[in-house]
Amino acid sequence: MNELLYRTAVNWDDIPAIEVRPGVRRKVYSTDQVMLAWHELAVGMTLNPHSHDDFDQLVLILAGRCRYYVDGVPHSLSAGSMLLVPAGSPHYIEPTEGPCVNVDVFTPPRADFLASAWHPA
């Protein structure tokens, strides 16, 4: 556990973004127990249907608009919308007006995102 994470106030603007693939930028903030993943998604990006069996995912849309598909059902979301993606449910996001910016909450943290997580100096 990094004790500095529990004593440091952070602004998303101070965390560098990485380009995951064309049209998708990500910032990750994580402790040992919970992870926040910020995404900026361009309209027309390559869609990425997937699922994860080990954890639920909470989604909060901060800007833009999208269709978020969970178990094949489309949900129209805009700034302020929230959605729960249950563990094991196939899902993906399709930005429709953007960029679409969202924050995902994962607990426990996603192991595949940990390498790109921000850590205080």
From TrEMBL:
Alphabetical list of CDD domains matching this protein: cupin_KdgF
Domain of life: Bacteria
Pfam families: Cupin_2
Ranges for domain Cupin type-2: 39-105
Name of the protein this chain belongs to: Cupin
Organism: Phytohabitans rumicis
